[in-house]
Amino acid sequence: MSVDEFREKYESLNIPVVIRGAAKNWPAMKKWTRQALVRKFGAIDFTVGGYEMALKDFFACSDGCSDDTPLYLFDPLFGEKAPELANDYTVPEYFARDDLFKLLSDDRPHYRWLIVGPSKSGSIFHKDPNATSAWNACITGRKRWIMFKPNQNPPGVYPSADGAEVAQPHSLVEWFTSFYEFANKEGALECVCEPGDVLFVPSGWWHMALNLTECIAITQNYVSVANLPKVLDFLDTKCENLVSGLDKNRRGGLSDRFVAALRASGDDALLAIVDAHARKKTSATQKAKSIIGDAFATASASSFSFSF
Ligand SMILES: O=C(O)CCC(=O)C(=O)O
């Protein structure tokens, strides 16, 4: 698939696609065997279930594990902890044009993760942070994915109104056992990614990934011209605790800092999107004010008054 075809048929329409073999020439494809990783980085701590754990200990735990919810290594700082790992891959050409959070330099939210886990590990249903889109490259092993459109809650999955909490079965295995049979009828998309394949996960799509074997993967989340309006909407309308990937004290005001950085870029296409977003916000505020104004007018016409 050409880059133009990807943008036209998938990215701009916010539709997922697997690009087979898009990562097949990465150095990581040859270098990232479990043995080689343990030899070079075994003593380095990576983030596993919210805790720091040496890579060699993580593999030792995984080997003895027959749980339905095995430990999962999911580290947003692998590039700082083991810079050589970040040199073993490049952003696939389909996604290389823009990564607009880059404009925020060190103030950008987390954007790349090393992911390692045994069979039955994986990610339960979620939407990606800050309304970003993502690509996920399978380097070793096989990863099964199930996805649903943004407005279609997966069966057995109940998000709170603001999306902050998602009630669902505790493990992927339990979801498959209890709800998989309803997935097709509800419009699920499914695929299995093999080594070298890259999945495009568009903004707002529900997705889960189940590792069918031990898997090593890299994922990156990004903001492009295509999903920028969604990201701006998200940063504006959600409470700051829903902003993800930044320290608590830097979440507030991310929207303003991002808009300022986009304006400072001087890029006409970005300015047009930022201006359209500002116009939409103004008209939504005016509409809300006029609804409130009408309600007060009606209330006072009918002599309603608060008794305090
Ligand atoms: O490889 C996985 O476990 C999926 C990761 C994922 O869905 C994500 O990073 O949003």
TrEMBL record:
SMART domains: JmjC. Belongs to the JARID1 histone demethylase family. This is JmjC domain-containing protein. GO terms for molecular function: cis-regulatory region sequence-specific DNA binding; histone demethylase activity; metal ion binding; oxidoreductase activity. It is found in: Nucleus. The keyword ATP-binding does not apply. Gene3D superfamilies: Cupin. SUPFAM superfamilies: Clavaminate synthase-like (SSF51197). Pfam families: Cupin_8. It comes from the Eukaryota. One of its GO terms (cellular component) is nucleus. GO terms for biological process: epigenetic regulation of gene expression; gibberellin mediated signaling pathway; positive regulation of seed germination; regulation of photomorphogenesis; response to red light. The keyword Lipid metabolism does not apply. Residues 80-239 form the JmjC domain. Keywords: Iron, Metal-binding, Nucleus, Oxidoreductase. PROSITE patterns: JMJC. InterPro entries: Cupin_8, JmjC_dom, JMJD6_ArgDemeth/LysHydrox.
